[in-house]
Write a structure and sequence with these properties.
Blueprint (H helix, E strand, L loop, with lengths): L1 H38 L14 H34 L5
Protein name: Putative integral membrane protein
Pfam families: DUF4235
Organism: Streptomyces himastatinicus ATCC 53653
Length: 92
């Protein structure tokens, strides 16, 4: 049993790293699309943009954080589920 658990963790480690990179790309694109819809602008404000208000900057940061967290959780959960399907054990 312990041997199988270690095997699933070993299998999941490189998969988890790859999924982390993929989730970052997906989240970045989703955030850009969401900001275009909500902000009516091409680019989200940078915290040091002098011409942007506090509200715009904080809204963009909050939205970006929420999108990244949700996508990361969904991708990691899918990866863990797939690993269990392949190895028979949960990787965490």
């Amino acid at each position: 049993m312990e041997r199988t658990l270690k095997a699933s963790k070993v299998v999941y480690k490189p998969v988890g790293l790859a999924l982390g990179a993929v989730s970052g790309l997906i989240a970045g694109r989703l955030f850009q699309q969401a900001w275009k819809i909500l902000g009516n602008e091409q680019d989200a404000p940078d915290p040091t943009d002098e011409d942007r208000t506090w509200g715009e900057v904080l809204l963009a940061a909050t939205l970006q954080g929420a999108v990244f967290a949700a996508v990361r959780a969904a991708v990691e959960r899918a990866g863990a589920t797939a690993t269990r399907g392949l190895t028979g054990t949960w990787p965490g």
